[in-house]
Amino acid sequence: MTKGCFYVYSTILIGIVDIEKEASWETACEQEDKMRVTYKGDYALKAVLDLALHYDAALVTSHDIARRIDAPVKFLEQVLLDLKKGGLVESRRGNIGGYLLSRPPADITIGEVLRIIDGPTEPISCVNESYSKCVDIRKCVFKNIWKKVSQATSNIVDNINFQDLVFQVNSAKEALMYSI
After folding, report:
1. For the chain, which residues make up each domain, given as ranges?
2. CATH of 37-179 among 3.40.50.1820, 1.10.10.10, 1.10.443.10, 2.40.128.50
């Protein structure tokens, strides 16, 4: 069975890695030391944005979030649990229970959400100074390139907060209302 894994470098989608063997796919796509935006990461970003859009409202149920972001409820609940463990989301039980952001949307970045759900944002292992498996590390001409890609990626995802995204969503809604 062929599976795919998206690798994102900076804001450019470089491509899809298709691997025929399951073990090879796990090696290429399941490693914790490369940036990849998984479906889980995508749903996490959408869920945090939904909570940011409803930040001043009452608690939001997982069913409401799932409906608005078109996500399976059970999967979304797993994502919300990870976000809760990461300190971004709080939950309340009961008839009037639900989820809310633990901090204002302006204090939560895309990078923080991605690191909680998908791991580090480095595109390749050797960017990390503690990496020691490469025999070519001292003479590798690519390390500095990957370091620059890593810095560019971090610069982007760490400087976009969810208040910025709420503003973009609300601006887009206003533009639609005026064009109708």
Report:
1. 1-30, 37-179
2. 1.10.10.10
Task: List residues bridging with 9 in a β-sheet.
Answer: 12
* 35/81 Cα distance (integer angstroms): 21
Q: What is the pTM of this model?
A: 0.73
**Closest-CA residue to 46 (of 113, 102, 104):** 113
| Side-chain-side CA neighbours of residue 175 (13 Å) | 6
Instruction: Per residue of the chain (180 residues), give pLDDT as tens.
Output: 333 343 433 333 333 333 333 333 333 334 445 567 899 999 999 999 999 999 998 899 999 999 999 999 999 999 999 999 999 999 999 888 899 999 999 999 999 999 999 988 777 777 777 766 777 766 777 878 888 888 899 999 999 999 999 999 999 887 776 655
